[in-house]
Amino acid sequence: MPARTRACFLRSRFDNKSYKEIAKEFDISYFSVNDAIRNSLYELRIALKDYL
To answer: b/e map of 18-48 (b: 16 or more CB within 10 Å)?
Structure first.
């Protein structure tokens, strides 16, 4: 998983930051954060499918 995608996911899930806060922190758009988190969830589902 790319570093920014992972960072967005971690900030969202573990630091309880909103997409707007994450976007401001990384100086990217709200939609880029949304895409990054969506992509990270997709990758996690694929990686963990044998365990769930």
So the answer is: ebeebbeeeeeeeebbeebbeebeeeeeeee
Alpha-carbon separation of residue 38 from 6, 18, 45 (angstroms): 11, 14, 11
Q: pLDDT tens digits, residue range 1-52?
A: 899 999 999 999 999 999 999 999 999 999 999 999 999 999 999 999 999 8
Per the structure block, which two tokens stand in for 15? 């630091």
**To the nearest 5 percent, what fractions of the chain are helix, strand and coil?**
75, 0, 25
What one-letter code names the amino acid at 13? R
Per domain, the residue ranges of the chain are 3-48
